[in-house]
Design a protein that fits this description.
The protein contains 4 helices and no strands. With 91 residues, the protein is mainly α. The chain is elongated and about 50 Å long.
Length: 91
């Protein structure tokens, strides 16, 4: 467990080009106390991206397994599911 913590905490320098508006957003987050510094803000963004990609991979695996058992999900089934989800959000 300690090794996992140490691996997570090791930092390395990275030089990248970033869109100007993202740099300003990071600086604003720091100025308003929402992040410790720009590096922490970027680190959080990368962590969110990694988690998002992992969730998409899991979702693709789930859908693949579902379709293997029950057949391909058809567009009309997807449309009905979207309508139901939107209705439940508005209630």
């Amino acid at each position: 467990m300690l090794q996992a913590f140490q691996n997570r905490m090791s930092k390395r320098r990275l030089s990248v080009f970033v869109d100007a508006e993202l740099i300003e957003a990071a600086k604003s987050a720091v100025a308003h106390g929402r992040s410790e510094n720009v590096s922490a803000w970027v680190n959080d963004a990368l962590r969110h991206k990694l988690r998002h990609e992992s969730q998409l991979k899991s979702l693709a695996a789930f859908i693949g397994a579902y379709e293997a058992d029950y057949g391909e999900i058809k567009p009309d089934e997807m449309n009905r599911a979207v309508r139901r989800a939107r209705q439940s959000r508005s209630e």
